[in-house]
Input
Amino acid sequence: MRNRRIHNRPELKTFRKKLRNNGTSAEATLWGYLKQRQLCGRKFRRQHSIGNYIVDFYCPEEQLVIELDGEDHFWEESVRTDHHRTVYLNKLGIKVIRLENKWVFEDIDFVLTEVQKFFL
Output
């Protein structure tokens, strides 16, 4: 069997870049706390693709994805899609934490503590 590339597939590069350049204010705020190994020395990547999915944040060392969810993620179809994404990532051994956008603004310490709970 061929070893298929699943991380940052070249055909998704343009879309990843577009997402990075047009991110939400919650993503920009959280990125300010994650970039440059500010959270417990862990490296995070922003708008990283895994398979056909592009995740908000990915920490390779911890095999951890952080997804920030706005109001559109609470519709039934979005919940179903998010579930399929989580199942796919979990099968690859990747943990997923889903947090609401509003938490980033209301209690960033809570958000960072929740993320740290997933560190080994």
Notes: Strands lie at 45-50, 53-59, 64-69, 95-100. The first strand starts at residue 45 and ends at 50.
